[in-house]
Amino acid sequence: MITNTNFKLRRLKQILKSLESVVVAYSGGLDSTFLLKVALDTLGKDNVLAVTARSETYPLREFKEATALAKKIRARHMVIKTSELGIKGFRNNPVNRCYYCKKELFKKLKNIAKAEGLRHCIDGTNYDDLKDIRYGRLAAKELGIKSPLLEAKITKREIRDFSKAAGLATWEKPSFACLASRFPHKTPITNHKLYQVDRAEEFLRGFGVRQVRVRHYGKLARIEVLPPDITILTNKGNAKKIDKRFRQLGFLYTTVDLRGYRTGSMNE
């Protein structure tokens, strides 16, 4: 860990104290779980509400994990329904697709905060997120959503270290992005395509790979896993099983990206 890590954690708590009460945009991932835990420890249960949005782009597996985690750390937890595919600007999948998604979500969070008497809405954006293109940040700025981890300049690696020290099971959880991130820009997103990607990724996890993305190009699927896991998928026996399952899902061709998993590969 770098020398100013403890300073960053103290800074995060100071930022949260200044907010007094918050609604946390909570997905159950590494960042939002850590943020929720620190918010609870800093502000107390009555001043923190975790809100999870259920939608077509959010796998049931992730939702169940989020619910279990919120219960384990004794957070107040509210589940709301959103439908990104009902937003034309989203389902047509433009480059700034995430802007439309986050704008709808943050509007709902603001309304919840007002109804619950909580002063601010916060999300789990961290300092490393500045390295990638994040169109949802514009929506956050427009609606006054706070990003305490970013403000405290806390990195992904530091969040993992802090989470491990706090006993959070998410400390080693792989990064996750909504299923809509699996499609090339300007390719319309449908429920069926989301189903294909979700089922394909769940199947691959059965081979022991933890970090996985199935990029959807119509009849072709491009698989990204961490470089050490590539040989697991290309093993003759496994490759045959994967090809068979992917054909059942509607993919005529299946490829494994030799560069491996990387954040933002659809923006390349």
In short:
The protein is α/β, with parallel strands linked by helices and 268 residues long.
Major beta sheet, strand line-up:
3-2-1-4
Order of helices and strands: HEHEHEHHEHHHHEEHHE
- Rg value: 19 Å
Number of helices: 11
What would you call the structural class? alpha/beta
Distance between the termini: 31 Å
Please report which band the strand proportion falls in: under 5%, 5-15%, 15-25%, 25-35%, 35-45% or over 45%.
5-15%
Helical content stands at 40-55%
Please state the average pLDDT score.
94
Number of strands: 7
Principal-axis shape: globular
What are the segments in which pLDDT stays under 50 over at least 5 consecutive residues?
Answer: none
For the biggest sheet, the summary is: 4 strands, parallel
